[in-house]
Fold this protein.
Amino acid sequence: MSTALITLKLETEQDVLRLRFTAMAITKALGFSTFAQTRAVTALLEAARNAQQHATVGRVRLSLHEDADKVALRAIVTDQGAGIENLEDIMSGRHASTASDGAGLGLGLGLRGLSRLADRQSIRSSAEGTEIELLFRTPLKSEAMITAVRSATDAISKIRNADPVTELTEQNRVLIEALTERDLLMKEVHHRTGNNLALIGALIRMSRRDAKAPETVSVLSDLEARVQSIIRVHEQLQRSARVDHLQALPFLREVAANAEDAFNSGALKVSVSVNGDDREIPSSMAIDLGLLVGELLTNAYKHAFVGRSEGSISVELTEQDDALRLVVADDGRGLTEGDARPERSGSLGWRMIRSMVGKYAGTTEVDGTDGMRVQFILPMHQV
């Protein structure tokens, strides 16, 4: 049976002092004699100062274990320092431990001294760090484990209640560490996601270039534009201070620039402008806006400028009460009498547009009298 008691960070002298008070309280609660208490606390401080001084930062985990017929206090002190050179020589007495090699521990007893203080010890060290395990047998029988756990946890609680400021400081530090680890994890996730998206985009681009049938080229071009919209969101998120929001206009300008790069040619030159209110929006909404704008830009390039060599498209994003107003307009041919209404089209693109607008309980207006003008109203309270 094994029960964890507490884990303490070892970074400052104040941390080592906190370990001292905690170890004294636990060993006293477990019935250690005064001499045994001093041995255990001294050994723990030796190992803790080694981690704190030579590896800058470490951790100590205290737990209770059954050892033969006794309850034992186990301490594992770990760090991520450079390791201890000549460990075997040091432990055999062939090499004198010094402060410079990391083996001359805090109170001067050295690594070999720990073996005289603990009932059992083991040390593992490599270039990735050092782990020191110490075991101290209590006078309690193993069947008293539940009582021992209760006594130890009560002692820890009393220390916390006696010094709430120190406990709050420790909790804040643990929270900051957790947030830092989360940020590092998110960066790694974003990095891998970016690589995967780039690979998907490259595969689509290669397939498009190898395709012979015009229909296949068209489908792959549309798909590439949609994937590129998602890639642009991801890139903006990586550059953003917040991982769940980004600035709308810079992102939409990247979507527009990507469309210009993809569709402008010697036969057709279309300029795309993006203007409006540069507000911060959730990343999920940015993906939807990018797909909406990308889809309409693709449609404009394919249908609005037939028989022309140049044209213009404007994208405008503004705030309207509690909603966003998105307008994509071109100076192309617009709709003529007899043309099917695009907003009722059964094409994949317009089905996707209707689905995204419906997601926000929004509205769509299409005007084809002077070029094509499509307006979306997307309530923000739906985000």
Notes: The longest strand covers residues 129-141. The chain has two domains: 2-162, 178-382. Residues 334 and 368 are 4 Å apart (CA to CA).
